[in-house]
Specification:
single chain; mainly alpha; 0% strand
Length: 81
């Protein structure tokens, strides 16, 4: 599914989300977006970017730490509730 990637994104995370979904290089997608804005037409590409930024859901957050740290923090969250 296509999500916005706000963790790795620069503005709205649209290019980072597209790069993750289709397994492209994020820098390549960003460069392609800028070239499209310059060569094709600025406003249609910018409007499409903003529309994607508003319509796409945020990517669910991922935990990249160690498994025992995740278990520790999850267990301490349950105790405080």
């Amino acid at each position: 599914m296509l999500y916005r990637d706000r963790e790795n994104g620069m503005i709205l995370g649209v290019c980072a989300g597209i790069a993750e979904r289709f397994e492209f290089n994020v820098l390549g997608v960003r460069i392609l977006a800028v070239v499209a804005m310059i060569c094709l037409a600025f406003w249609p590409v910018a409007i499409a970017y903003v529309i994607f930024g508003l319509m796409l859901r945020d990517r669910p957050l991922s935990y990249y730490g160690r498994d025992y740290e995740d278990r520790f923090w999850r267990s301490s969250d349950r105790e405080t509730e």
